[in-house]
Write a structure and sequence with these properties.
single chain; mainly beta; Jelly Rolls; 1 helix; globular
């Protein structure tokens, strides 16, 4: 079967349009957490709009709340619960909600351990 050059070109263009753009993921910080009491910590080093905020844990961590403050000054609780060891939680943002000024954590490590909360972001 012989394909014409126009059909091949159309297929090539269509395959390029269907490929999603690659998003840039940046690891921003690793926040230490102890098991003594719920610690209140803040991270405020966002340099670009955020599509996805990813929280990861190297040990089991319980969070009473994770709160985001937007550039507009509005604050929203975006997570509460357990971050299991080697687990992640992804929180998506869109529109004006992509401009973060800080993230506040009220968290503690469980099971008599210490741990870290990793903060990464994905943006276009």
């Amino acid at each position: 079967m012989k394909k014409s050059p126009i059909v091949c070109l159309a297929l090539l263009i269509a395959s390029g349009l269907a490929t999603p753009a690659l998003a840039a993921t940046s690891h921003l910080a690793s926040i230490p957490v102890t098991n003594r009491t719920d610690h209140t910590m803040t991270f405020a080093n966002f340099k670009a709009p955020v599509d996805v905020l990813q929280l990861s844990a190297d040990n089991d961590i319980r969070c009473v709340s994770v709160t985001v403050t937007f550039a507009s000054g509005r604050t929203q609780k975006v997570f509460s619960g357990n971050l299991p060891a080697n687990g992640t939680k992804e929180i998506s943002f869109d529109g004006d909600r992509r401009n973060l000024s800080e993230v506040g954590f009220e968290c503690r490590a469980v099971n008599n351990t210490e741990g870290h909360i990793g903060i990464s972001t994905t943006s276009d």
